[in-house]
TrEMBL record:
Taxonomic classification: Eukaryota, Viridiplantae, Streptophyta, Embryophyta, Tracheophyta
Coiled-coil ranges (or none): none
Signal peptide: 1-23
One Pfam entry name: Glyco_hydro_16
Name of the molecule in the record: GH16 domain-containing protein
CC terms in the record's Gene Ontology section: plant-type cell wall
Organism: Cucumis sativus
């Protein structure tokens, strides 16, 4: 067990238009994103098609999208630091005013497995943490982390496998993110946060996480973001398909080990007793 840190990651909306996905994959970082914290902690690689975020004692790198989105399917490829630190790779889409957020957070290792935490904030209410053990080592190669967000459901994907589904249950009193979201990525020191008091071992620094796939094909806020002509809003994206459903059941059975719905506070969340 070394230190703990957070690598914030990104959520990128990508449409399901196949020909676009290919070109979006190699899009330049600066086309859709801007560096938020310290230019010298965000390094462009491969002509700007890849970015490397660094965390050291001076701070961590962070970036966010130039625009805000209101729906989409977004995906980014990430490779966690190879120096095997129990890190948190934290990926979120956040909004400015009322706090809505949909995020991936990498909480480092727990024995041999890496922990991925997801959370959903709606109307400034979060606390919807869910944790699972990844079935691969995320430091060895790039993997895809994606989020579908339409007016019916939010689905978190890891390598196209659904790992979490959050339904729009506002009609029965649930909350659901509705604010325009920025796509953000960062790596940060998560000491004292989700680290069970473990400290960052700075002798292992710098910690470097790599990001690719900077295409964003979400719906820019202010447009008709619930339009069914957008591929991610299509009726076949309102629910998981049978293959996705069985993959999801498998993930829940084998890898998910902690969810807020099973904690005492679960009783306060409508979606925990639909
Ligand atoms: C959630 O679903 C309701 C219908 O049940 C719809 O009116 C509302 O716009 C949806 N919310 C969002 C943010 O899409």
């Amino acid at each position: 067990m070394k230190g703990s840190l957070f690598l914030c990651l990104v959520l990128v909306f990508i449409s399901c238009l196949k020909k676009d996905v290919v070109s979006q994959k190699y899009l330049n970082f600066d086309k859709n994103y801007v560096v938020m914290s310290s230019q010298d902690h965000v390094l462009r690689l491969n002509g700007g098609t890849e970015a490397q975020l660094t965390l050291d004692q001076a701070g961590g790198g962070a970036f966010q999208s130039l625009l805000k989105y209101g729906s989409g399917y977004f995906e980014m490829q990430i490779k966690l630091p190879s120096n095997h630190s129990p890190g948190v790779l934290h990926s979120d889409i956040g909004s400015d005013n009322v706090h809505d957020e949909i995020d991936f957070e990498f909480l480092g290792t727990d024995g041999p497995s890496y922990i991925l935490q997801t959370n959903v904030f709606a109307d400034d209410v979060g606390g919807r943490e869910e944790r699972l053990h990844l079935w691969f080592d995320p430091t060895l190669a790039f993997h895809n982390y994606g989020i579908l967000w339409n007016s019916h459901q939010i689905v978190f994907f890891v390598d196209q496998v659904p790992i979490r589904v959050f339904k729009n249950l506002t009609s029965i009193g649930g909350r659901y993110p509705s604010q325009g979201m920025l796509v953000q990525g960062s790596i940060w020191n998560g000491e004292g946060w989700a680290s069970n008091g473990r400290k960052v071992d700075w002798s292992q620094a710098p910690f470097q996480a790599n990001y690719k796939s900077f295409g964003i094909l979400g719906c820019q806020i202010g447009n008709q973001c619930d339009s069914q002509t957008l591929p991610w809003n299509n009726q076949d994206k309102w629910e998981l398909n049978p293959k996705q459903q069985s993959d999801y059941e498998n993930v829940k059975r084998k890898y998910v080990y902690d969810t807020y719905c099973l904690s005492p506070r679960g009783k306060n969340y409508r979606e925990c007793h639909p």
